[in-house]
């Protein structure tokens, strides 16, 4: 039950991109085509899930016992960077086709604030290990939803008659903000469910 | 106090060393065999990742060249110099390719081509193509909505007065526009061939004329005018065989509908080097246009107004005394 709530909340109500405004850089950068958006979101989901779990373990088994909770930020970044490199190597070896599809994006995800964000949020919300895993994956799924929808809209915008001064990036930002406002509509969902 | 420094250093250092070991181990265990030539070739490639070669970026092309899937001439941006470098790395002979450019085979612009209907849909050629082949009366003509313009990474094609035109200086023959054109009327031709038939209309003369003022009506005047057998009419449209064409531009002169385009200012002329000429008269005998005069054993001269720059005299001259420029 609680896991289901975490899932729904992360994907719709507190969408990582559209409500929490994390991970905007790849959101705007890799959303020109739907195929690349899907590739990117798969990679992000995978990394977010894995990073959440490992950073949770680092927090509770290394940082807290040694009383150095304030090193959280650096330690998490270290973990995420190492993890992404490791994942890239594994994917390159085990599945060359998958590597062709999303290998280019993996380094981009290292500095993605959504990944660090989800790791820190897990600690702040006092989740246990399972909840952390679910929250991490749900965060990835929320990124997926946002970027794939946005990519679809951007592809259509390419062919629409937009005023010259708004073409390209400006209209993308306006659309993104409209998306964000639209997702505000979900805010009453939880109180309705509970 | 010391505790505050020691523990973080140990902990973070420990995590870092742990990941370092994991990554080092992983890079050996999960090492993918790569040919060192791939890195070398990749380093000489321009690195723009434009996709002009047809592969997904310079990395993919380097892979393909070393594997043998792509020819060493695949990169259109690098030019002759790059081909030489890659040939050196791969240990093969570099054969120089004649530079090719794309050409749009249509001259039916807004002044010449008639429209079937007024199109107000998405400004994209592929979309217009779905509505009975576009708004032009001629099914084979350029829709002029610029899908090719959007595809071109080198800004080498533009829509001018309703028809796409390639800027031959900028074109690198990457073929993206050719793939994008839903009518399939863009072709790759050698850049040195200056004469072109700008029409692909396969319908009979009357139907063509009704659709467009400058369409090819297959009247065969060009075939009769060509002394080099380089132009043929097939399926009601003229086509130039570029292996035989010598740029004499006679077909363009006689074409009644002005479908064949040639910039007469580009026409070359023959020049006889008086010092080398021995008066053997071979050149004047081979000139199809009567543009060389001179007596036996005397110096020969080119008549500028008759010379069309076909270059036959230069080919035949035993003393290499004729220059075409």
Task: Please give a structural write-up.
- The complex is a heterodimer of chains A (194) and B (325).
- The longest helix of chain A has 31 residues.
- The mean pLDDT of chain A is 87.
- Chain A is mainly alpha-helical and 194 residues long.
- By secondary structure, chain B is α+β, with helices and mostly antiparallel strands.
- Chain B is built from 12 helices and 12 strands.
- In chain B, the strands form 6 sheets. Chain B has a two-stranded antiparallel ribbon with strand order 1-4. In chain B, strands 2-3 form a two-stranded antiparallel ribbon.
- In chain B, helix 2 packs across helix 3 and helix 2 runs antiparallel to helix 4.
- Chain B is flat, with a radius of gyration of 29 Å.
- The model of chain B has no long low-confidence stretch (mean pLDDT 82).
- Classes of the chains: A mainly alpha (194), B alpha+beta (325).
- The interface between A and B is medium-sized, with 24 and 21 residues.
Oligomer: heterodimer
Mean pLDDT of chain A comes to 87
Overall number of strands of chain A? 0
Structural class of chain B: alpha+beta
Report the β-strand fraction of chain A as a percent range: under 5%
Write down the secondary-structure element order of chain A. Answer: HHHHHHHHHH
What's the number of helices of chain A? Answer: 10
Main sheet of chain A? Answer: none
Which pair of protein chains has the largest interface, and what are the residue counts? A-B, 24 and 21 residues
| Structure summary, number of beta strands of chain B | 12
Main sheet of chain B: which strands, in order across? 1-4
Q: Count the DSSP helices of chain B.
A: 12
Q: In terms of per-residue confidence, which ranges of chain A show pLDDT below 50 for 5 or more consecutive residues?
A: none
Structural class of chain A: mainly alpha
Low-confidence stretches of chain B at least 5 residues in length (pLDDT < 50)?
none
- Global Rg of chain A: 18 Å
Assign a percent range to the helix content of chain B.
25-40%
What is the CA-CA span between the terminal residues of chain B?
87 Å
């Amino acid at each position: 039950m609680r896991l289901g709530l975490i899932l729904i909340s992360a994907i719709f109500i507190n969408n990582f991109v559209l409500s929490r405004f994390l991970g905007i850089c790849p959101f705007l950068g890799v959303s020109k085509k739907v195929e690349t958006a899907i590739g990117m979101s798969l990679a992000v989901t995978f990394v977010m899930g894995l990073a959440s779990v490992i950073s949770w373990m680092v927090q509770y088994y290394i940082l807290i016992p040694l009383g150095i909770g304030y090193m959280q930020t650096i330690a998490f970044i270290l973990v995420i960077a190492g993890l992404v490199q490791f994942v890239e190597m594994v994917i390159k070896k085990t599945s060359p086709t998958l590597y062709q599809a999303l290998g280019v994006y993996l380094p981009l995800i290292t500095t993605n604030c959504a990944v660090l964000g989800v790791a820190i949020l897990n600690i702040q919300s006092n989740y246990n290990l399972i909840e952390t895993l679910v929250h991490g994956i749900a965060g990835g799924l929320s990124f997926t939803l946002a970027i794939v929808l946005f990519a679809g809209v951007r592809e259509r915008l390419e062919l629409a008659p937009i005023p010259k001064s708004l073409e390209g990036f400006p209209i993308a930002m306006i659309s993104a903000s409209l998306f964000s406002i639209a997702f505000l509509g979900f805010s009453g969902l939880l109180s309705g469910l509970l | 106090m010391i505790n505050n420094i020691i523990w973080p250093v140990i902990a973070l250092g420990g995590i870092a060393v742990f990941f370092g070991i994991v990554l080092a181990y992983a890079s050996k265990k999960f090492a993918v065999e790569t040919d060192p030539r791939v890195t070398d070739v990749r380093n000489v490639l321009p690195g723009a990742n434009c996709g002009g070669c047809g592969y997904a970026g310079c990395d993919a092309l380097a892979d393909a060249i070393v594997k043998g899937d792509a020819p060493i001439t695949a990169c259109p941006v690098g030019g002759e110099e790059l081909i030489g470098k890659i040939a050196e790395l791969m240990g093969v002979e570099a054969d120089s390719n004649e530079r090719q450019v794309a050409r749009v085979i249509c001259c039916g612009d807004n002044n010449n081509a008639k429209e079937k209907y007024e199109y107000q849909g998405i400004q994209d050629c592929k979309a217009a193509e779905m509505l009975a082949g576009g708004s032009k009366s001629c099914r084979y003509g350029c829709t002029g909505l610029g899908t090719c313009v959007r595809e071109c990474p080198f800004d080498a094609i533009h829509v001018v007065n309703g028809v796409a035109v390639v800027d031959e200086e900028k074109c690198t023959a990457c073929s993206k526009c050719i793939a994008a054109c839903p009518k399939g009327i863009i072709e790759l031709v050698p850049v040195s061939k200056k004469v072109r038939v700008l029409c692909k209309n396969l319908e009979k003369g009357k139907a063509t004329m009704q659709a467009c003022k400058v369409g090819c009506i297959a009247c065969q005047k060009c075939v009769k005018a060509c002394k080099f057998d380089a132009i043929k009419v097939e399926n009601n449209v003229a086509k130039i065989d570029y292996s035989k064409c010598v740029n004499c531009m006679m077909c363009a002169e006689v074409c009644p509908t002005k479908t064949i385009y040639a910039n007469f200012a580009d026409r070359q002329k023959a020049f006889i080097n008086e010092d080398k000429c021995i008066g053997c008269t071979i050149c004047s005998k081979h000139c199809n246009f009567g543009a060389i005069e001179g007596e036996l054993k005397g110096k020969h001269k080119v008549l500028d107004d008759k010379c069309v720059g076909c270059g036959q005299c230069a080919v035949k001259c035993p003393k290499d005394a004729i220059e075409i420029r």
